[in-house]
Amino acid sequence: MPSGTIKVNKPPPQPIIGPPPKSTKYKGVKHTIMVMSGKGGVGKSTVSVNLSVTLAKKYKVGLIDADINGPDDPKMLGVSDAEITAKDNQIIPVSSKYGVDVISMAFLLPTEDTAVIWRGALRHKAIQQFLEEVAWGERDFIILDMPPGTGDEGLTVAQLVPEVEGVIIVVTPQDVALLDAKKAINFAKQMEIPVLGIVENMSGFVCPHCGETVDIFKRGGGEEAAKKYGVPFLGRIPLIPEVVANSDDGIPSASSNEIVAKAFDGITEKLIEAIGKKKK
Ligand SMILES: Nc1ncnc2c1ncn2[C@@H]1O[C@H](COP(=O)(O)OP(=O)(O)OP(=O)(O)O)[C@@H](O)[C@H]1O
Ligand SMILES: [Mg+2]
Q1: Which of 10, 127, 216, 276 has an alpha carbon 20 to 30 Å from 58's alpha carbon atom?
Q2: Which residues pair with 63 in a beta bridge?
Q3: What is the number of the ligand closest to the CA of 249?
Q4: pTM across the whole model
Q5: Is CATH 3.40.50.300 the right assignment for the domain spanning 29-279?
Q6: What angle do CA 185, 60, 134 make, to 5 degrees?
Q7: φ/ψ of residue 103, rounded to 5
Q8: pLDDT for res 89
Q9: What phi and psi, each to the nearest 5 degrees, are found at residue 196?
Q10: What is the DSSP secondary structure assignment for residue 111, as one 8-state letter?
Q11: How far is the CA of 75 from the centre of ligand 2 (A)?
Q12: What element of type H or E holds 159?
């Protein structure tokens, strides 16, 4: 080797992971939907909670907080102080006043700031319990709020749930949305799960003083990604400061803010449409 050059070993080829055996215990749920993103902090939990609240106006909805390390959903639904109970060897999910029942690692932690430092196998086990050992009964929808990226948790759900209805991908409007969406689409493809659509979050900021829209994170990346990859575009949610305050106060904005409610009504309508089209 000439001096000054460094030999870099090629990474080993990625194993092709196919769908292994399915759970026989997770049943009675009509539509199981995963909310994912290629990266963190784009609004998966916000979308999961508000979508669940909107669907719950018409349907029986359960929400699984599949983010074991960073469980946020109980706080966003105002039930972080609840304690879970069990009956007939099954965990009873926590009911919220918004019609959504939820299960989360947050209910099992001694304090809100306890760090969950678990390897993949333990997180797999926790999600398996959330699917198989919770008394979901007959449900129209189970929404799974996934952790960022395409790691172990997504794999667990894809492995266990007999038929995942599909994946909703949340992106922010920048150009990198294309790349982020692509990662999640590739995951769905490899797991043989349909992509139900893309939601563009933090799309334009409406100034509360002058009413003008400022595109802080650009605009249209989600719609562009949907077009490029041939998947439905479910809609956009503007960046609204009240959403942050509401989340912290345990009030889903779809139940309290007109703009957010309208956005989620539209997203829900498109989602139902996408499910209907898929079934034909
Ligand atoms: N449309 C919006 N307008 C204003 N703030 C928002 C909006 N969507 C999300 N947020 C805020 O952005 C932050 C991140 O959102 P959220 O927790 O839903 O993202 P996430 O993708 O679930 O994050 P993580 O990857 O850490 O799980 C939260 O404080 C949330 O309140
Ligand atoms: Mg989250």
Answers
A1: 127
A2: 102, 143
A3: 1
A4: 0.91
A5: yes
A6: 80
A7: -130, 140
A8: 93
A9: -80, -20
A10: S
A11: 11
A12: helix 152-160
